């Protein structure tokens, strides 16, 4: 065995590689009692600890789909009383893949598989996320056209995307990028305010038969399908910038 420290940590199911890097930066990770640095390698027989606690290999890989209700925060910080981990209350240590805003609802994945988190969140993987959004003013043709072609937020133009009006104040949008609070920022830039935002699909998975506030395990077929879709994703973290699976 000879793997990078952040991959070793994510492989145990403790957290994603991105979060592992944060632990390393904070000086909370040791290899054989020596403070770990980014880029360190772990060899067979090395003892890796986080906050003085040895990491143990995970037993089973867990994949969960949750229909997140409003008011739940997509954080692993247990000090936050509305955190998603306490809400799901699973016996194993799991973490969300990406996030949905506290006021947003809908489909989100949780897992203890740090590798698949890394692959799904990688920018440029073109994994579709579908949302139904209601806004505070009537949706116009100009609004739909502009949303489709790209809106300037966070200093960049959003990628072209599918947008379809579904009612006087409602539209459906499919994103392949995940800039922070992207849909809300796009609407705000055009003078609209989001009133409700629900993610209805991630890649091939939908909210079908999953009531609000409930969660279920992926089926074997769903796990196989997701793994096939991310098979081409690089395992490195090159290009893993601000994009991911935010709304």
- Total number of helices: 7
Q: What sort of overall outline do the alpha carbons produce when their principal axes are compared? A: elongated
Task: Please name the CATH topology of the largest domain.
Answer: Alpha-Beta Plaits
Distance between the termini: 37 Å
What is the share of helical residues?
10-25%
SSE run: EHHEEEEEEHEEHEHEEEEHEEEH
- Based on helices, strands and strand pairing, what is the structural class? alpha+beta
Protein name: Pseudouridine synthase
Catalytic activity: uridine(35) in tRNA(Tyr) = pseudouridine(35) in tRNA(Tyr); uridine(2604) in 23S rRNA = pseudouridine(2604) in 23S rRNA
Keywords: Isomerase, RNA-binding
Domain RNA-binding S4: 3-60
What does this protein look like?
One of its GO terms (molecular function) is 23S rRNA pseudouridine(2604) synthase activity. Pfam families: PseudoU_synth_2 (PF00849), S4 (PF01479). It is an enzyme of class 5 (isomerase). It catalyses: uridine(35) in tRNA(Tyr) = pseudouridine(35) in tRNA(Tyr); uridine(2604) in 23S rRNA = pseudouridine(2604) in 23S rRNA. Belongs to the pseudouridine synthase RsuA family. With 247 residues, the protein is of the alpha+beta class. The chain folds into three domains: 2-54, RNA-binding S4 domain (Structural Genomics Hypothetical 15.5 Kd Protein In mrcA-pckA Intergenic Region, Chain A, Roll); 63-122 and 208-229, Pseudouridine synthase I, catalytic domain, N-terminal subdomain (Alpha-Beta Plaits, 2-Layer Sandwich); 129-202, 2-Layer Sandwich (Pseudouridine synthase), CATH 3.30.2350.10. Helices cover 23% and strands 27% of the residues. It has seven helices and 17 strands. The chain has helices at 5-11, 17-25, 84-88, 114-121, 141-149, 182-189, 220-229; strands at residues 2-4, 29-31, 34-35, 41-43, 48-50, 53-54, 63-68, 95-97, 105-111, 129-135, 152-153, 156-157, 162-165, 170-175, 194-202, 205-206, 215-217. Strands 7, 8, 9, 10, 13, 14, 15, 16 and 17 form a nine-stranded mixed beta sheet that branches. A four-stranded antiparallel beta sheet has the order 3-2-5-6, with no helix packed on it. Strand 11 (152-153) and strand 12 form a beta hairpin. Helix 1 (5-11) packs across helix 2 (17-25). The longest helix has 10 residues, at 220-229. The radius of gyration is 19 Å and the shape is elongated. Residues 235-242 have low confidence and may be disordered.
């Amino acid at each position: 065995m000879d793997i990078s420290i952040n991959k070793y940590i994510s492989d145990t199911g403790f957290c994603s590689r991105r979060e592992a890097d944060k632990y390393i930066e904070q000086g909370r990770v040791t290899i054989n009692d020596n403070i770990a640095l980014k880029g360190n390698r772990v060899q067979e027989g090395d003892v890796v600890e986080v906050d003085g606690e040895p990491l143990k290999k995970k037993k089973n890989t867990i994949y969960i789909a949750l229909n997140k209700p409003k008011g739940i925060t997509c954080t692993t910080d247990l000090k936050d009383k509305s955190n998603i981990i306490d809400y799901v209350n699973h016996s194993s240590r799991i973490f969300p893949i990406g996030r949905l805003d506290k006021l947003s609802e809908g489909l989100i994945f949780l897992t203890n598989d740090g590798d698949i988190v890394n692959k799904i969140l990688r920018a440029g993987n073109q994994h579709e996320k579908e949302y139904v959004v209601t806004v505070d003013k009537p949706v116009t043709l100009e609004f739909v056209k502009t949303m489709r072609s790209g809106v300037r937020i966070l200093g960049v133009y959003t990628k072209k995307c599918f947008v379809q009006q579904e009612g006087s104040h409602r539209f459906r949008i499919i994103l392949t990028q995940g800039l922070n609070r992207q849909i809300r920022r796009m609407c705000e830039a055009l003078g609209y305010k989001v009133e409700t935002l629900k993610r209805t699909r991630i890649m091939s998975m939908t909210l079908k038969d999953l009531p609000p506030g409930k969660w279920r395990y992926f089926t074997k077929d769903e796990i196989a399908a997701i793994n096939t879709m991310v098979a081409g994703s690089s395992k490195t973290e090159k290009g893993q910038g601000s994009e991911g699976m935010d709304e």
